[in-house]
């Protein structure tokens, strides 16, 4: 039972991050009807931006020392006499890293939003109003471009990035067994779910959210009602890329930074289809379910079997419920 | 100058090579292949073999994506199934079947197994449209590679480190040189192109295109979406299986990583560059895709004078080039090189009076 | 030949059809008319199998076909055209028409891949047939190799009719065959429809807004309004019907 709970919680924590990745795919789909197959690679680039702003720039010779390691007097004082690996030590490590984490997140979000804008303007905009098939295929081409570009700019070597929250171990007992968690993982999950909720609220309640929904309903009608459809498109792409940057940063803190981060996009694509493409709630549930399922698989069958869980799950779901667990069947007009 | 396309019978009108320029190209192409087999140096043969193997797979992708309109991003999986099937077949029937017959049986078996896997993967296409299928095929690609890599199947597949494939032997003729392999690959490549061209001038192939163009209208013509999509998938996967079989024989060693998503994307890139839904499209596309690394290599050779660090950059540059080719062709010439060639041919037919 | 009895169809709360019953007599032209939104196209979609009715049945040649898929119905000998032309846009006129022969040809995958032999014989015989029965018949021989997208609207409508004729259907359903056509094109189309009936003895069911055309060529007319069948009979009977006049001209008339 305790083991089960431990793995279930681990699963929920990675599920929340899947949900954060998924929100980008769903938002772009809602606004533009294009499924971005390259979203995982957009996220990967976001992760590399975080790496650049949080590791490479602070580590550069010209960067001020406080950026790499902020050590005000009180911090040094507090650190005196602390044992290794103490919870307080982890918090202090985090405080010391705070400047570069902040720079990293801000830089990654801005740079990635710009990337989203560039992709929309140069690749998607010229095809607007034409076949969705071509637009989807362009995102497929984008996979190769982004994957190659990252290896060219940052090389394929793996590296580590600072956690966005203090990584103190958290321990508590449930019945007989001890549940063992890390502070950073908990914060990651909370951040992911908050961003997810914020986006759902935005789409539901704000004016630009209404514009997105109207565009999703009928592009030409939205256009004629005075909604600037191109603007909706570029906003959706920027939003997806910006949330993707946060997701990428979190993924990089968990898995280290390497070009293989892009592959997460494909598992999340599977999740999005399971949830039903246009349903935020469905996608959230699917993301959490797959997270838990992966953790259970890891527990029962071993780590590597977990990697195909989303793919097997999506095949099963598509066969049983073609429009996803919560998606709506579109009535076709003939 | 060919002034008009005038025919005296419907049979003449239904021909594929329906004017003398087209026939001239056909004969020139066949002669060219024969000349390659006879006189080309080893490096050219090597590149030509790569093209031939890739060509058959791209024709396969073209059947399902180009003609039937179902996006597939996982056809590398079918190539893998073909490659591993022949290899395992040779191992399993080493004693039971005489050596001269083994490859003759192994190749059709590989195609059949790939077709079967294709039908299973294609099942979601019955229920929902293109997009879901793209993800289903993508998933199948990951799952197939994953299974091949598993320790459990390692005795048959060799796991992560790969496995050796013996040289094929056709009734006593062992194809143990690349030049002999080229003869086989070229013959099967030409045959594949002809068979697919035939397919699309009969009811079977027309039904594929009908589904791509307007599925409900196809239904009203009496075309069963279910059966037709699966047929398309089976043919497509079988061709990829054939390509995989040749791949295994040609490289004599196969590794799971050779059949990952990158290969699927390469196949899609070749199809788009060449021209989706056109018989000769894959030929053009494959020529470009196979030449890309060569061109990058030679550019770097000139620019850096052959430095050692360049090899490291080759893979990412090649990847970017594939992606750019997909994107640029979709943006600027969605009908692909085949369309450009068509225009050139038309100009030639009318030469010297019009362009 | 084709009969519909007590057909009910709804989308969510919208009742598209409420108890439509009629019969299209063999070899006759039956017209379905009604104001916009009366449910005419829904009726067609239910008859050709795209929508499953909530209640009632569709029978063809004495056989209940209510549960059959559209492609099975086509195989039995039902052909139709669409209101907004549903041709295969990536193909030539000839290929579009050839698709009409799908159920009548029989080459399998192996024969198709080999071509020479049964597939070739069959294709050539079929080609000769459609040249005579469709292309010459509809006077479209000058455009047979033209891509669909290059054709004007009126010709596209005619090609769609041709594609349906290539099926050699027992029942031909035409959804607004002359919508958007000028007087001359309408007259041409009317002539072709009458020729089809006369030459091939095809049972024809058509939905149309052009009252003149319907009154001229139909032997029997069914009138729908808000999904309900308000009248049925010969053109003369229907034209006298008070409810029909009210539906078309409003209560004040």
From TrEMBL, chain A:
GO MF, any single term: transmembrane transporter activity
UniProt xrefs under InterPro entries: ABC_transp_permease, BCAA_transport_permease
Compartmental location: Cell membrane
Pfam families: BPD_transp_2
Membrane topology value: Multi-pass membrane protein
Highest taxon, organism lineage: Bacteria
Membrane-traversing stretches: 6-29, 41-60, 101-119, 131-154, 179-203, 232-251
Keywords attached to this entry: Amino-acid transport, Cell membrane, Membrane, Transmembrane, Transmembrane helix, Transport
GO BP annotations, alphabetical order: amino acid transport
GO cellular component, one term: plasma membrane
Family: Belongs to the binding-protein-dependent transport system permease family. LivHM subfamily.
Protein name: Branched-chain amino acid ABC transporter permease
UniProtKB/TrEMBL annotation, chain B:
GO cellular component, as recorded: plasma membrane
Membrane topology: Multi-pass membrane protein
Transmembrane segments: 24-39, 45-64, 76-97, 103-123, 130-148, 181-200, 230-252, 320-341
Locations listed in the record: Cell membrane
Pfam assignment, any one: BPD_transp_2
Keywords: Cell membrane, Membrane, Transmembrane, Transmembrane helix
InterPro entries documented for this protein: ABC_transp_permease, LivM-like
GO molecular function: branched-chain amino acid transmembrane transporter activity
Primary location group: membrane
Identification of the protein by name: Branched-chain amino acid ABC transporter permease
Naturally occurring in which organism (per UniProt): Rhodosalinus sediminis
Lineage start: Bacteria, Pseudomonadati, Pseudomonadota, Alphaproteobacteria, Rhodobacterales
TrEMBL record, chain C:
One term under GO cellular component: plasma membrane
Pfam annotation, one family: ABC_tran
Keyword tags: ATP-binding, Nucleotide-binding, Transport
Ranges for domain ABC transporter: 2-251
This protein's record includes keyword Nucleotide-binding: yes
GO MF assignments: ATP binding; ATP hydrolysis activity
Name by which UniProt lists this protein: ABC transporter ATP-binding protein
Organism: Rhodosalinus sediminis
């Amino acid at each position: 039972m305790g083991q089960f709970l431990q793995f279930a919680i681990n699963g929920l924590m990675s599920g929340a991050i899947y949900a954060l990745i998924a929100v980008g795919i769903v938002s772009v789909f809602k606004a533009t009807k294009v499924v971005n197959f390259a979203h995982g690679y957009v996220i990967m680039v976001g992760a590399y931006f975080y790496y650049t702003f949080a590791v490479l720039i602070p580590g550069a010779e010209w960067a001020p020392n406080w950026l790499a390691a902020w050590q005000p007097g009180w911090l040094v004082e507090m650190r005196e006499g602390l044992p290794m690996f103490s919870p307080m030590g982890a918090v202090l490590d985090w405080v010391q890293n705070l400047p570069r984490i902040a720079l990293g997140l801000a830089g990654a979000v801005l740079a990635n939003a710009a990337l989203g804008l560039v992709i929309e303007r140069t690749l998607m905009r010229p095809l607007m109003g034409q076949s969705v098939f071509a637009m989807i295929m362009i995102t497929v081409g984008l996979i190769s471009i982004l994957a190659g570009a990252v290896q060219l700019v940052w090389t394929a070597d793996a590296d580590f990035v600072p956690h966005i929250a203090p990584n103190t171990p958290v321990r508590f007992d449930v019945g007989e067994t001890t549940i063992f968690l890390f502070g950073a993982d908990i914060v990651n999950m909370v951040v992911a779910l908050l961003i997810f909720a914020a986006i759902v609220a935005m789409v539901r309640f704000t004016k630009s959210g209404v514009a997105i929904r109207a565009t999703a309903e009928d592009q030409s009608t939205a256009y004629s009602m005075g909604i600037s459809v191109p603007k909706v498109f570029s906003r959706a792409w920027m939003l997806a890329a910006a949330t993707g940057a946060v997701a990428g940063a979190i993924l990089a803190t968990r898995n280290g930074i390497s070009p293989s981060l892009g592959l997460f996009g494909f598992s999340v694509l599977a999740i999005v289809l399971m949830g039903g493409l246009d349903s935020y709630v469905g996608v959230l549930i699917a993301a959490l379910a797959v997270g838990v399922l992966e953790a259970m698989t890891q527990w029962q069958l071993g780590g590597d079997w977990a990697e195909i869980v989303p793919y097997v799950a999506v095949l099963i779901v598509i066969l049983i419920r073609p429009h996803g667990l919560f998606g709506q069947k579109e009535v076709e007009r003939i | 100058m060919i002034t008009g396309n005038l025919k005296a019978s419907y049979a003449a009108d239904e021909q594929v090579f329906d004017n003398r320029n087209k026939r001239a190209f056909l004969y020139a192409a066949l002669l060219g292949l024969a000349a390659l087999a006879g006189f080309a140096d080893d490096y050219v043969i090597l590149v030509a073999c790569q093209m031939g193997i890739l060509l058959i797979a791209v024709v396969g992708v073209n059947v399902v994506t180009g003609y039937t309109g179902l996006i597939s991003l996982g056809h590398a999986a079918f190539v893998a199934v073909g490659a591993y099937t022949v290899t395992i077949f040779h191992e399993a029937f080493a004693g039971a079947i005489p050596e001269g017959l083994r490859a003759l049986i192994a190749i059709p078996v590989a195609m059949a197994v790939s077709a079967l896997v294709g039908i299973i993967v294609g099942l979601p296409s019955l229920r929902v449209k293109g997009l879901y299928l793209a993800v289903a095929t993508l998933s199948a690609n990951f799952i197939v590679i994953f299974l091949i890599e598993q320790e459990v199947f390692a005795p048959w597949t060799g796991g992560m480190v790969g496995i050796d494939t013996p040289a094929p032997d056709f009734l006593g003729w062992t194809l143990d040189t690349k030049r002999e392999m080229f003869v086989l690959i070229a013959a099967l490549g030409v045959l594949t192109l002809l068979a697919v061209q035939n397919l699309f001038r009969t009811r079977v192939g027309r039904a594929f295109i009908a589904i791509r163009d307007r599925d409900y209208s196809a239904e009203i013509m009496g075309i069963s979406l279910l059966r037709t999509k699966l047929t398309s998938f089976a043919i497509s996967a079988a061709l990829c299986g054939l390509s995989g079989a040749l791949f295994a024989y040609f490289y004599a060693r196969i590794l799971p990583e050779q059949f990952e998503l990158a290969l699927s994307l390469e196949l899609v890139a070749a199809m788009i560059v060449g021209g989706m839904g056109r018989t000769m499209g894959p030929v053009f596309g494959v020529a470009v895709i196979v030449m890309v690394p060569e061109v990058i290599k030679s550019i770097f050779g000139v620019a850096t004078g052959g430095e050692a660090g360049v090899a490291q950059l080759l893979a990412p540059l090649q990847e970017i080039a594939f992606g750019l080719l997909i994107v640029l062709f979709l943006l600027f010439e969605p009908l692909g090189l085949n369309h450009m060639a068509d225009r050139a041919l038309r100009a030639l037919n009318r030469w010297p009076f019009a362009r | 030949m084709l009969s519909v009895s007590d057909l009910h169809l709804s989308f969510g709360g919208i009742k598209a059809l409420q108890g439509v019953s009629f019969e299209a007599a063999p070899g006759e032209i039956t017209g379905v008319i009604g104001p916009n939104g009366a449910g005419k196209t829904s009726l067609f979609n239910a008859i050709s199998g795209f929508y499953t009715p909530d209640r009632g049945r569709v029978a063809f040649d004495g056989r209940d076909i209510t549960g059959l898929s559209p492609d099975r119905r086509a195989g039995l000998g039902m052909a139709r055209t669409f209101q907004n032309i549903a041709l295969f846009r990536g193909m030539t006129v000839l290929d579009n028409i050839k698709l009409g022969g799908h159920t009548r040809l029989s080459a399998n995958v192996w024969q198709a891949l080999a071509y020479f032999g049964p597939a070739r014989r069959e294709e050539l015989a079929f080609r000769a047939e459609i040249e005579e029965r469709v292309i010459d018949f509809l006077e479209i021989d000058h455009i047979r190799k033209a891509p669909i997208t290059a054709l004007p609207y009126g010709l596209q409508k005619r090609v769609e009719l041709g594609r349906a004729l290539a099926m050699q259907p027992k029942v031909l359903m035409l959804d607004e065959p002359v919508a958007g056509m000028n007087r001359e094109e309408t007259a041409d189309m009317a002539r072709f429809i009458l020729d089809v009936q006369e030459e091939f003895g095809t049972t024809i069911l058509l939905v149309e807004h052009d009252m003149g055309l319907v009154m001229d060529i139909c032997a029997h007319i069914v009138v729908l309004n808000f999904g309900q069948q308000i009248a049925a009979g010969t053109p003369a009977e229907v034209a006298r019907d008070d409810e029909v006049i009210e539906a078309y001209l409003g209560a004040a008339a």
